[in-house]
């Protein structure tokens, strides 16, 4: 069983290593690269909390040497992995939501911070946290601090292996990654083969572009988390190999 991991670095390599520990061979083809933006950050004293929907926001703030003024703020992270990263970087008061933007909005609403929430985010947002919290009387100031730049092509060897059907499954973690995969790989894979290639996806939202391009063999993780994706990969590999 050989799988293809499409998420950006450094997460792609981390997933590859965790798959190897499960005795699953995987290649990596990061379809996006993070670039820190030259953002003008508002004064931190004006905020009561920080919202994080991605570890990439923390990495961008670290690049900008802008973490120290925020470390005394309560942090609301989209999931356990982002929460863990925040704690590793010195944030003490960290609440983890359940892996989705809706659950992040709910966690913030229940906590009722007594002032605006600072939301360092990506340039391409999959949801609008400010819009979700406005009806609850909470102000969110969204500042793009990073951009995920799409690859313009696939590595020659990866493209060849996709065209010849050498991957047993493809792992997709974000809707935008799935969209980029469809743009770069659809023409490589014959229509009949698209229906055969399995995709392991973080959620229905991630899977939607694949289905629209007739990649119809899609399996969804039980929970939008890395652990759930690895559990899905292991179950799928065992089913395919009979082990």
Write a brief structural summary.
The chain is of the alpha/beta class.
The share of residues in helices is: 25-40%
> How many E strands?
11
Secondary-structure element series: EHEEEHEHEHEHEHEHHEHEH
Multimer state: single chain
What is the CATH C-level name of the largest domain?
Answer: Alpha Beta
Outline the biggest β-sheet: 6 strands, mixed
From the alpha carbons, calculate the radius of gyration and give it in angstroms.
19 Å
Strand content: 15-25%
Whole-number mean pLDDT: 95
**Overall morphology:** elongated
Q: How many domains, in number, for the residues? A: 2
CATH architecture verdict of the largest domain: 3-Layer(aba) Sandwich
Q: Reading side by side through the largest sheet, how are the strands ordered?
A: 3-8-7-4-5-6
CATH topology of the largest domain: Rossmann fold
Describe the structure.
It catalyses: hydroxymethylbilane = uroporphyrinogen III + H2O. It is built from 10 helices and 11 strands. It is α/β, with parallel strands linked by helices and 243 residues long. It has 2 domains: 2-31 and 151-241, Rossmann fold; 34-149, Rossmann fold (3-Layer(aba) Sandwich), CATH 3.40.50. The strands form 2 sheets. Strands 3-8-7-4-5-6 form a 6-stranded mixed β-sheet, with helices on both faces. Strand 7 (117-122), helix 5 (129-133) and strand 8 form a beta-alpha-beta unit. Helix 7 packs parallel to helix 9.
